[in-house]
Amino acid sequence: MKFKVVSAVAALAFLAACSTTPETGSGQTGGGAAPVAAPSGPAAGSQQEFMQEVGDRVLFAFDSYSLDSQAQQTLRRQAAWLQQYPRYSVTIEGHADERGTREYNLALGARRANAVETYLESLGVPGTRVSSVSYGKERPTCSQPSESCWSRNRRGMTVLR
């Protein structure tokens, strides 16, 4: 009886070992298909990749259209991505916070968009693929009257088209 139990356990262990799929890269070939890794992150060359991996906006200081080092770093990534995917053109949107007149903020938004456009072109993005528009304070991302909110509204957005 003891022999039958040990034989049954050994047979089950043998069958279980035969039914497992070897790990990918182990050099063994099995009867089943190798597991496929799920893609991580957005698809290469997609708008989602541009927004999440490259960055689609740069921020500006109060009453400024100068590009700081962080903005320049983001724009270098954008330029490299745009050179890799020439099927895209972009529109640069200039935005301002709610302080100041409508006219002043439209002019400031235009200067911000122009600063981004000029920098991208200096990095090799053809001017024929870049246009700009100013929205001033008309399209805020945040509407609370606080510096934290205003700082997010002072931006240059690169929109793929």
UniProtKB/TrEMBL annotation:
GO biological process, one term: cell division
Keywords: Cell cycle, Cell division, Cell outer membrane, Lipoprotein, Membrane, Palmitate, Signal
Span list, region Disordered: 24-44
CDD domains cross-referenced by the UniProt entry: OmpA_C-like
Keyword Protein biosynthesis: no
Residue ranges, compositional bias (Low complexity): 34-44
Any one annotated GO CC term: cell outer membrane
Superkingdom classification of source: Bacteria
Localization of this protein: Cell outer membrane
Pfam families documented for this protein: OmpA
Boundaries of every OmpA-like domain copy: 47-161
Signal peptide positions on this chain: 1-19
Main location: membrane
Cited PANTHER family: LIPOPROTEIN YIAD-RELATED (PTHR30329:SF21), STATOR ELEMENT OF FLAGELLAR MOTOR COMPLEX (PTHR30329)
Function description: Part of the Tol-Pal system, which plays a role in outer membrane invagination during cell division and is important for maintaining outer membrane integrity.
Family listed: Belongs to the Pal lipoprotein family.
Descriptive protein name: Peptidoglycan-associated lipoprotein
